[in-house]
UniProtKB/TrEMBL annotation:
Keyword Protein biosynthesis in annotation: no
Domain Rieske, residue spans: 56-145
Gene3D superfamilies in UniProt: Rieske [2Fe-2S] iron-sulphur domain
PROSITE patterns: RIESKE (PS51296)
GO molecular function: 2 iron, 2 sulfur cluster binding; dioxygenase activity; metal ion binding; monooxygenase activity; oxidoreductase activity, acting on paired donors, with incorporation or reduction of molecular oxygen
Highest taxon of the lineage: Bacteria
Organism: Pseudonocardia sediminis
InterPro entries: Cholesterol_7-desaturase, DUF5914, Rieske_2Fe-2S, Rieske_2Fe-2S_sf
Swiss-Prot/TrEMBL keywords: 2Fe-2S, Dioxygenase, Iron, Iron-sulfur, Metal-binding, Oxidoreductase
Disordered: region residues: 1-26, 334-357
Pfam families per record: DUF5914, Rieske
Name of this protein: Phenylpropionate dioxygenase-like ring-hydroxylating dioxygenase large terminal subunit
Amino acid sequence: MRSAGSGSGDRRAGTTPVHRFARTPWAEQAPTYAEADPSVIGGALERARRRPSGNWYVIAASRDVGRDRPVGRTIAGRELVVWRDRDGRAAVGPGACPHLGADLSCARIDRGDLVCHWHGLRLDTSGVPGWSPMPCHDDGVLLWARLDIVGGEQPTVAPPGSARPGHAGRLDAVATVVGVCEPEDIVANRLDPWHGAWLHPYSFARLRVVETPDPDRDDRFLVEVVFRLAGRWGVPVVAEFVCPGPRTVVMRILSGEGVGSVVETHATPLGPGPDGLARTAVVEAVIASSDRPGFARAHRVAPAVRPLMRRVATRLWRDDIAYAQRRYRLRTAPGYRGSATPAASSDPVSRGLRPTA
Ligand code: FES
Ligand SMILES: [Fe+2]
């Protein structure tokens, strides 16, 4: 397989992973619309949507929930409170106090119990009649809640997972962005790798999709791309995109700098906003690793690097959320035809979402 950075005009900078690549003006890149077949994207999306979730939803970054105060979340229209018990284990319960409904995200924590700030009711992980905590999973980077009444699927003991780099010498950061859309719009955006160098020219160059999902084999996209650093300098990698669950897309670097690093994109439905339209949170966990000497000590610089990692992810999601919101608006607007799984057609433009005449 040809490396994204190995074509003519590229030059390696000594032994560093950074390559100089031949710069192509944005408008002169090879168009990708003919390859970005809506039926391929739609098919991959449909298969992802049919995968079991076990009713698990990402609710927060693990490090965002400390021992000192609870955190409130609304998932699929349900108010939740997240806190840590006496042993530091994460716990999730209904967000309204079972007495008169006070907001438990404003409760105090005392020896690992929630103490309601309206009348002092003490709540712990064993619950009380009318108020039962739900299963919670802390994978060290993300917190998940199992909401059986929302998911309606067969519950599982743990969320659908995928391999992550080992703990030693890895860096992780979690960024969250909220959009007016549904989870499938977020997943559909991630299952369109062809937009990368067009919509995010500041981050990607020379993107080439070398494998599209085959449900009978590896149901994945394989992409060669140069992550742009500055000007003509960038890091070429080969990455795969897979969906381990209906609301998750995982990008894993298979070759190039940072092999094994993953970007997990989780789409969590929040419920309708004040305008009645759906809101979805994109919770993106970047878990970076490298076998380079010195990276094993990355944890020392993590507090400084983490905000930078979050900023990069958030910048990309500013554009991607606009894509997802646009998709949601089109597919839910009256008078539009097209769907998440448009039928195959020989005309690459008409296969997508478009208004009826
Ligand atoms: S509302 Fe919580 S104790 Fe009364
Ligand atoms: Fe994107």
